[in-house]
Amino acid sequence: MGGQGNDSVFLPFRNTEAEEEKPLCDIDVQSNISPEDEAILAPPAEQAGSPSDPQQPQKAQELQLEAPEESKDPALVEKNPALATPAVRGLLKELNVNITDVTGTGKDGRVTKDDVQKFIAAQKKWTDQPILPQPTRGFPSTNQGQLERPITLTPVQSQMFKTMTKSLSIPHFLYADEIDVTALSTLRQRLNHQPSSTQRLSYLHFVIKAVSLALEDYSLLNARVDTGIGEDAPKIVMREKHNIGVAMDTPQGLLVPNVKDVSARSILDIASEVSRLQALAKDGKLSVTDLTGGTITVSNVGSIGGTYVAPVLVQSEVAILGIGKARTVPAFDDHDRVVKKDVMNFSWSADHRVVDGATIARMAERVRAFVEEPALMMTRLR
After folding, report:
1. pTM attached to this predicted model
2. 356 catalytic per annotation
3. CA angle 213, 291, 168 (to 5 degrees)
4. What is residue 116's three-state secondary structure?
5. Residue (of 300, 368, 348) closest to 174 by Cα position
6. How does pLDDT run along the chain (382 residues), one tens digit per residue?
7. Of residues 172, 177, 249, 352, which has the active-site annotation?
8. From its phi and psi, is residue 355 left (phi > 0), alpha (psi between -120 and 50) or beta?
9. How many CB atoms lie within 10 A of CB 354?
10. CB neighbour class for 221 (10 Å; exposed up to 12, middle 13-18, buried from 19)
């Protein structure tokens, strides 16, 4: 029984009728089967047939015939553990490989040494392939260094860099207040709904005119500071025309063209000129004349968003006004009743070297009066 191959062991019995010896059973012995495989190959006790029950194989066959076809689906049949010789199992243990992961090509699906070697080679080939980083939407790794890429300034950015660098050397005085634009909002809507109206009016057009009317009383804010060399330097240079600049957000960057001689223009004329400048700025076709000669600036940042702003002066000017967005808020009227009001925040900056706080406050109050009472503005129009 200890040799290679299969040996048969015969247990004789005497047949009284035929007077010849026949084997009681035939046992195959395989010396190269491991104990684990013997446990797998041994049939369960309940499946072994009883000699005293000759009908049991017949019943098993009947049960097999009655089994539904779905039970023969390989996906539903539990996979039996793989077979292997002790030598192969020792190799699997040495390589830390699970035998169920290896597809056996030997007899009855037995795992051979070649199967193990092919499996290891395939695994090594797969792990040697470079792993490409997958795009993720998570946060970047904090261990990576900062990536920097220098970009040359555009001509507009270069000019803005020079202008703002000089402007920030000027001490700014800031002044802000909330303006009630309820009456102006009603007037503007009524004018825009006129059948004969060809130009849409915005808050900005009225504010530009209000600033010009206030400059008639506070002409210092239309001047410029000359810091040139000489006995009389520095000095203030007064300017007669109100060339009010309008800050515009364009594809090229921040540009500030100006509406020339606002004091001589009507509100409709101002609206038409602003529309012309906006169209040219969008196409990048503003002329040098459009961009030079400004005396004071209005920045309508509220058209984009924001309530408060700290505008920065242009070096050739001594005052600038920043307008916040219009919004509706609850407020008390003269009879202590809660009503809706449309308000905007006006934020002023002035050159504190030549303009004191009281002057900019009075200028701001005069503009407020014109904006909150449009009828008062109409009485000053020429």
Report:
1. 0.62
2. yes
3. 85
4. helix
5. 348
6. 444 444 444 445 444 444 455 555 544 444 455 556 556 555 555 444 444 444 444 444 444 444 444 444 444 334 455 677 888 888 888 888 888 888 888 877 788 888 888 888 887 776 666 656 565 566 666 677 888 899 999 888 898 899 889 888 999 999 999 999 999 999 999 999 988 878 899 999 999 999 999 999 999 999 999 988 777 788 999 999 999 999 998 888 889 999 999 999 999 999 999 999 999 999 989 999 999 999 999 999 888 888 888 999 988 999 999 999 999 999 998 899 999 999 999 999 999 999 999 999 999 999 999 999 999 988 887 7
7. 352
8. beta
9. 17
10. buried
Q: Of 358, 363, 360, which Cα lies nearest the Cα of 350? A: 360
Evaluate whether 325 touches 342 at the Cβ level (below 8 Å).
no
The tokens describing 251, both together, are 């594809």
Residue 125's SS3 state is: helix
Q: Is 21 helix (H, G, I), strand (E, B) or coil?
A: strand
Encoding tokens for residue 175? 């002044």
Measured between alpha carbons, how far apart are the two ends of the chain, in Å? 129
Q: Give the pair of three-digit tokens for residue 58.
A: 């017949």
**Whole-number Cα distances in Å, 194 to 54, 187, 188, 248, 345:** 111, 11, 10, 28, 28
Task: Considering the candidates 53, 108, 226, 356, report the single residue annotated as catalytic.
Answer: 356
Q: Is 335 a catalytic residue?
A: no
Decide if 31 contacts 2 (C-beta within 8 A).
yes
